[in-house]
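Structure representation.

___
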Amino acid sequence: MPKLSTLSMAELSYHFGVRVCVYPSTEQKRLIKRNSDASRFIYNEMVAMNRELYTLRQVKCPISLVLQRITTLQERLKRPSTGISNIHGWLNHPDFDADMKANAIKNYRTAWKLFKQVHQFGVPQFHKRNARQSYQTSNHYQSSKGQPTMTNGSVRLLDRHHLTIGKIGRLRFAGMPKWLFTRTDNIRIGTTTVSMDATGSYFVSFQLASTQPFVSPSPKTGAQIGIDLNLDNFLTDSNGNTIANPRYYRQMIGKLAKAQRKLSRRARRAKQERRQLNQAKNYQKQRLAVAQIHQRVANQRKSFLHQLSTTLVKNHDLVVTEELRSKNLLKNHALAMSISDVGWRQFLTMLAYKAALHNKQFVTVDPKNTTQTCHVCGFVMGTANTHKLTLVQREWDCPQCGQHHIRDWNAAQNILAKGLAAIG
C-alpha cells in the first residue's frame, strides 16, 4: 500500500470532510475577519481585471494606450499573486496568510473552469460583503517530520479539543467524531476553511484524505427500494411506507415574519438617523435574532435529512430516486416555498455520498410518467382517450387492468423498476 508521503491529496483513494465549531479569542476573530476581507478583495480584483480586459478587447480601433493596458492586464492575470500585492501593498502585512491569497486566486480560476464545463451559474461575479466571513488556507508538511498525519502539519490537531492554524494559532474546538482520533496516523489534512456564519459562530472545515476507507461498509441486506419524493408526505417508498413532511420552515414562519418586520423598522430608523447599519446596535441585535431563526430551521432540516438518508442507505443495497431539478421546480411560485422547505436536493446529495461511503448503490432516474403509469400492466394515463391524473387525484384505477393505485406508492414502484432496468 502506498504511503501518504508519496501521494498528493488528489491521488489518495478516500476523501472525507469534517466541520468543527471553534472558539477564537478577540484577537483571533480580528485576524479571521482581516483574512476573509483580503480573500474577498483578491477575488474581486481578479473579476475586475478580467472585466476590464474584456471591455478593452471590444475596442475596434485599438490605440497604443489601449494595447499597452491590455498587455499589462494579461501579465497581471498570469501572475496575480505578485501583481495584486505590488499594487496594493497592504496585502503584504504579516497578518495575512500567504495560502489565503493563493486559494482566493485558485477559487477564481476554478469558477471559470466550472463555467466553461457546465455554463450553469454564469461567469464569476463580485463577492459582496455580508455578515458571513470565510477564507481558505492550505496545509503543509515537512519531510523531516516523517509520514504526514493529522498531528504534524502546519494545520494540525494538538489534542482532542485543540488545533492550530497558521497565523491564527491555537484554537479550542468541539464536534469532531471520536473515531477520527483513533486514525490520525493514516489521515492527511488538506485544504482548510475558516468561516463565520450569520449568527456569529466560527467553524473550521477540514478536507481529509487517506489510503484506507473512512467508514466501514455496512453489511449487505439484499433489499432494494424506490423512493417517490412529494410535498404531501416527504417520501413514499416502493414498500408502501410513508415519511411525514416535517415542514420546519412553515412552523417558524409566523415567528420569523414578526422578527423580520422588527428588523425592517430598525433599518428604517437607522437610515432616518443617518447611521450606518453596521454601526446600529439595535439593528445588528435584531439581525442576529433573525439569523438564529433561519439557522434553527436549517439545523432541524439537516438533522432530519441526515438521519433519514443514513437509515435508507444502511438498510438497502440499492436506493433509487427520481432525478429532480430543484431550480426548475422553484419556478412554480405556488409551490416554491414548500419545495424549498423539504430540501430535496440536499437529501439526494446525502444519499449519493453516503451510498459511496457504505459501498451501496444509489441511482437516479427520469421521473417522466412515473405517476401516470400503471406498474402492473404499464398503461400510461393520457393515452387511449384517457385524461392525465391531476395533483388532486391521490388514488386511481387503471382503465386497462383495473388495478387500484395509491398515486405515490405506484410512482415509487415505477421508480424502482426504472432503476433496476438502468443498472441492467
